[in-house]
User: Fold this.
Amino acid sequence: YLAPTLTFAGDHYGVLEVSGRLDFEVNYSDPRIRVHGFNWAGYRYAHTDDTTFAPADRTYENVEGGTYWIFTRTIWRGLSVAMEAQVESEPQANEAFRANTYAGVVWVLVPFLKTDEGKVGVQYVMGAEYYDFVCQNVQLQDELYWLRHRLTLSGTWHFPVVDVNGSVTYAGKVNDLHFSAFSGSAGLTWHLLDDLSLAAAGDVSYRLGLVEEPRDLSQAPALAQFYGGSAYGAVTFDFTVALTYVFGNSLLLHQDQRWR
Assistant:
């Protein structure tokens, strides 16, 4: 299936912010393998007329984008192995360029959900990440290679009208617990039509430390310190609502639970 999602947002609370994002999900599944890709591009514009900002600092723009692919091979029933690869650029998060490769294993109680069924699962991955920073990071580095691992426990319930899902995750640097994060997420999806769905999702995280955090936030534009720098806090949360139309077998979007 193919599933594009287009999101627009805007607000004005002293600062005018307008943003847009296009997500494009691609999936192929059969009982043995799954190939799953996420691709995205986004733009943000922020402007303030506050005279306490220097004229050059009153406008901030950024463009982000990336691609993330997973190849999964079922070994036995709900047990699968997988490879992950990701490339992205998110300047607002101090990532001029980032590339990740992971390998891991996942077990789910029910690989393909039927209506009125639920599943629980556990996933563990380890891999290498490379960062090219916009500003020098807290470790006084302009770029970084490191090993990271991630453990996720998840649950999903598939009903005729709605799907409910949730997960908790630990992720961190393999040899340094300081750069660790704990997060939880939950979501609800309404099946408006066979191929059209409306999803609401939220997550919250607690981070001990972030390798991408700039050493000195004053190196970034003033508005970037707010729209990007605020993401370096110990506790963060977000909430999104998205309308998605699926071209192809839309059932796979909700039924295939391998490597969600």
Summary: The chain is about 5% helix and 65% strand. The mean pLDDT is 88.
